[in-house]
């Protein structure tokens, strides 16, 4: 299970991230689109370099090596515009918004790709899928890249999502739009591990 950061800074964020790691968070995506290089560096340093192998950078990829991070993520826009930096020893992930788009990644070096939104987004108002992604997943031909569900994922639908052909789930709104982020994480984790 993957957790994605809140796009903007929020109260008690670093403490929550540490608590999530203590409870077994595998990967934490740092998606702070408006952060400067200095803000990203400070954010990663605040999390702690001991977690660097579990961190994924969405921007300022050139900082990865200095921060000890070997995972970088490309947005759909960056991938399609060929804005790509070399990460020969690292792991690369990306974002997609249709199964057809996901299937085109089969010959690339992406370990996993998000497919979103699966359900109406918890964190983005009026962000819903234009198609039934459970039906779309049946058209999957790319099995070289792990398919990760994103968008509206919560304890109420983790099992259903994994049953319909997704390899993993990513959480954002159910963590950061909650008064009990760690509790929500643990509920989702328990369901995912029992699947």
Structural account:
The chain is α/β, with parallel strands linked by helices and 195 residues long. The chain has helices spanning 13-22, 37-47, 64-67, 76-80, 99-103, 133-137, 158-163, 173-176, 181-194, and strands spanning 2-4, 27-30, 55-57, 71-74, 91-96, 110-115, 146-149, 168-171. The protein has a single domain (2-194), classed as TIM Barrel, CATH 3.20.20.70. Strands 3-2-1-8-7-6-5-4 form an eight-stranded parallel β-sheet. The longest helix has 14 residues, at 181-194. The radius of gyration is 16 Å and the shape is globular. The model has no long low-confidence stretch (mean pLDDT 89).
**Biggest sheet character:** 8 strands, parallel
**In whole angstroms, how far apart are the ends?**
12 Å
Helix content: 25-40%
Number of helical runs? 9
CATH topology: TIM Barrel
Q: What proportion of the residues form beta strands (DSSP E)? A: 15-25%
CATH class, named: Alpha Beta
Name given to the CATH architecture: Alpha-Beta Barrel
Uncertain runs are: none
Strand order of the largest sheet: 3-2-1-8-7-6-5-4
Query: Which superfamily, in CATH terms, is the homologous superfamily?
Result: Aldolase class I
> In angstroms, what is the radius of gyration?
16 Å
User: What is the average of the pLDDT values?
Assistant: 89
The number of domains is 1
Number of strands: 8
Please tell me what the overall shape is.
Answer: globular
Helices and strands, in N-to-C order? EHEHEHEHEHEHEHEHH
Protein name: Thiamine phosphate synthase
Keywords: Thiamine biosynthesis
Pathway: Cofactor biosynthesis; thiamine diphosphate biosynthesis
């Amino acid at each position: 299970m993957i957790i994605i950061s809140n796009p903007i800074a929020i109260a008690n964020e670093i403490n929550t991230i540490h608590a999530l790691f203590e409870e077994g968070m595998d990967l934490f995506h740092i998606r702070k689109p408006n952060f400067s290089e200095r803000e990203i560096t400070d954010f990663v340093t605040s999390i702690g370099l001991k977690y660097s192998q579990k961190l994924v950078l969405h921007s300022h990829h050139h900082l990865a090596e200095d921060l000890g991070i070997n995972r970088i993520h490309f947005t759909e826009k960056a991938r399609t515009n060929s804005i790509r930096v070399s990460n020969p020893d690292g792991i690369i992930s990306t974002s997609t918004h249709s199964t057809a788009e996901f299937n085109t990644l089969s010959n690339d070096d992406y370990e996993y790709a998000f497919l979103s939104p699966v359900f109406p987004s918890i964190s983005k108002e009026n962000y819903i899928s234009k198609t039934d992604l459970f039906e779309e997943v049946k058209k999957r031909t790319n099995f070289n890249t792990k398919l990760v569900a994103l968008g509206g994922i919560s304890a109420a639908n983790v099992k259903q999502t994994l049953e319909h052909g997704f390899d993993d789930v990513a959480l954002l709104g159910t963590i950061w739009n909650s008064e009990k982020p760690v509790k929500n994480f643990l509920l989702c984790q328990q369901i995912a591990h029992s699947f």
